[in-house]
Amino acid sequence: MYAGIDNPIRVAVPNYSCSELIVQTDNGPLKGDGCKYVARPRGGSSLTVFVSVSQGKDTLMAGKWSYRVFSVPNPIPTVAGRDAEHPEMSTNRILASPMLVLKMVNFDHEIFWGVNSFDMHVTEANGNQISYHADGQKFTSEMIEKIKDLKSGSLVKISSISASIVANDGSIDEGMTRTLSDLELKIN
After folding, report:
1. Closest to 72 in 3D by CA, of 39, 101, 105
2. pLDDT tens digits for 96-145?
3. In 3-state terms, what secondary structure has residue 18?
4. What's the confidence (pLDDT) of residue 49?
5. What local confidence, expressed as pLDDT, does residue 109 receive?
6. pLDDT-derived band at 14, boundaries 50, 70, 90
7. pLDDT of 174 strictly over 80
8. Which of 46, 98, 169, 177 has the greatest count of CB atoms below 10 A from its CB?
9. pLDDT value for 170
């Protein structure tokens, strides 16, 4: 299970219908009914699911299952499909897609991250340094104009990247805001 995101679970008890089950956890909300639920651990290192069955006026414990809870890994920042492992690119490639995109690598859950803000620091081939700030994932018009003028050998560093998990309804989950690793690009 991963903290702060929806984790689907299914429960069943032999000889009982799904409508007779009472399902609870000790770590965060549980949504659903019958045999299908979604657990959203708040954090910590474990979550226990308790399953009881209703028999008339009595409730009988049917079992409990413990799960380890992990933190969602940070996404990888990319620009025009390039990340820190492949930092060389042309200005034309950046200008074709002037935005910061976050991708998850080797993660089984489908979650989406939104960029809240970031800083861009440019070191021109002559050593001149300029910094910019953007809110959201798109490069500002000032950033784009500067990128148009960059020569081969210039460095672009994206830093102070603030990102949050985006919920299914499009809202930002403030409890899942992270500062991500920097991305350094080299203009070729």
Report:
1. 105
2. 999 999 999 999 888 899 999 999 999 988 888 999 999 999 999 999 99
3. helix
4. 97
5. 86
6. very high
7. no
8. 98
9. 76
Tens digit of pLDDT for each residue in 20-56? 999 999 999 999 988 999 999 998 999 999 999 988 8
With contact defined as beta carbons under 8 Å apart, do 172 and 116 qualify? yes
In angstroms, what is the C-alpha Rg of the chain?
Answer: 23
Tokens of 171: 């809202």
Rounded Cα distance, 172 and 170, in Å: 7
Residue showing tokens 């003028």 = 149
Q: Which amino acid is at 73?
A: P
Which pTM was predicted?
0.83
Which residue carries 């300029």 as its tokens?
Answer: 130
**Extended strands (E) in the chain:** 7-10, 21-25, 30-33, 36-39, 46-55, 58-68, 76-79, 88-89, 100-103, 112-123, 129-135, 155-166, 172-180, 183-187
Dihedral sign computed on CA atoms, order 101, 105, 111, 116: negative
CA–CA distance, 155 with 151 (Å, rounded to integer): 9
Residue entry with tokens 């809870």: 69
